[in-house]
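Hello Y.,

Per our agreement to keep a running log of every chain we model this quarter, I'm adding this entry. I've kept the format consistent with earlier entries: sequence first, then predicted structure.
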Amino acid sequence: MKPLVLLAVSALASGAQAIEPAVEFKVEPAFSPVFGGSVVGEAGRMEGSVFSVFPLNDLIGWGPQVQDAVLFVQPLMGWQEGGSTTASLGLGFRKLFGDPTQGHSKLADDIDLFGEGWYVGGNVFADWMQSPRGFGHWQTSAGVEVGSRYLSFHANYYWPLTKEKRWGENTTRRLDLLGATTTRTSSDPTLFIGPEISSGPLAGTRDVHIDTTYREVTQLRLRTTDFTFGFYEEALRGWDASVDVLVPKLDRYIDLRLRAGLYGFHEGEVADGFHGWLVGAELRPVPAVALIASCFEDGRNDEPQWLMGVRFEVPLGNGIKEAFKARRR
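Predicted structure for the entry above:
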């Protein structure tokens, strides 16, 4: 499940007003639409996105009967430095168990893991990405989640819908030695007659001999083979799972969430798979702004990579002013 929805629902649960039993119940606005965006970067590469969350019903509210479910859609558009663009459209559902008004009246010193109830949820998404080379890839995903104010678990699985795309090739030539034949040939013999010897035992004779030059000729039998290598890109099938923890006591003034997770993508038709881990933190100085940082490693680089950025989540309702104010729970 996208973190945006969890935080929006959590902010609603923590922002409600206590109900005085002696007066008429006051019903706060239901879960309102949210508009947001993010900018993050890693190792010289930047990416960003804009998104929104639209509830399809008005089931979350406060009053004599606190409703306990919400159905919502979430569109998203994103970009990456280098020419890649993305788009997603998701449908999600959450159901709350327990009464969040019980925990609402408590101070943060009174930590109760399920004091404001707990929830389960699910989602399905259709995702599209255009690569820097101009190819489009489609995938679908499904996710589940369960959690409370202080602890939550999320898991997603991704299925590619498009096949691999070929974007280039490279041809190399190989020479194989099949055999060699060596022959020895000679040039025409040359008669050499030296000068007459005038003294010594051989006086009166001449040096006579024949010179013949030999050479070897080697003939090689070679085979030429051309190899063409194609370059491909493809969407991979994979999964991710993470656990989020809201730091207790500190949440009386500010929200700090810590995250740890694992992810993996299986080997495709032409691409290698990879598996890795991630750890991160999210600091929310005001409800509408989140500062995020994470570290991940999956073997594709020599060392772990860092990702840092900021995310905005602005409610499109009466709570827009409160969303930018520091709060005391």
